[in-house]
Design brief:
- By secondary structure, this protein is an all-alpha fold.
- The chain is built from five helices and no strands.
- It is elongated, with a radius of gyration of 16 Å.
Length: 130
């Protein structure tokens, strides 16, 4: 994957996470009182803060690094992908409600982790120029 493609995909993932966090924190994204009760501290704001910290910020950082062709983009892509997969598993555990977004975003996280691994291991062998 090209660095610009990695940056674009990272920014798109980050944008979705930022939108979700703002929606949760502001109340615009209403998940219903039953699911609200399953959130940590029963607070959409805490859920929004966690989404920001675990998904939005890492993918924003990855997008910037990839856009700048920074050699740290590969390892950060691996970490961001694993964090996204972990987020999906933890979210599903907390809310105990299935959404079609869960497997989609788990797959997105897996793709980032695999691309990051490829970039990282390729650079370590000198295959990909940084």
């Amino acid at each position: 994957m090209s660095r610009r493609g990695l940056a674009a995909a990272s920014f798109a993932t980050a944008a979705g996470a930022w939108a979700g966090a703002v929606g949760l924190a502001s109340g615009v994204l209403d998940i219903g009182s039953e699911l609200d009760q399953r959130l940590p501290f029963r607070s959409p704001v805490v859920g929004a803060a966690a989404l920001t910290a675990v998904v939005a910020v890492p993918f924003t950082v990855l997008g910037v690094l990839a856009w700048r062709a920074d050699r740290r983009a590969g390892p950060i892509a691996m970490v961001a992908g694993v964090l996204l997969m972990g987020w999906i598993l933890v979210e599903f555990t907390f809310i105990r409600s299935f959404s079609f977004f869960h497997p989609i975003y788990f797959g997105v996280g897996l793709c980032f982790a695999l691309v990051g691994r490829h970039e990282y291991t390729g650079q370590s062998r000198g295959v990909h120029p940084s």
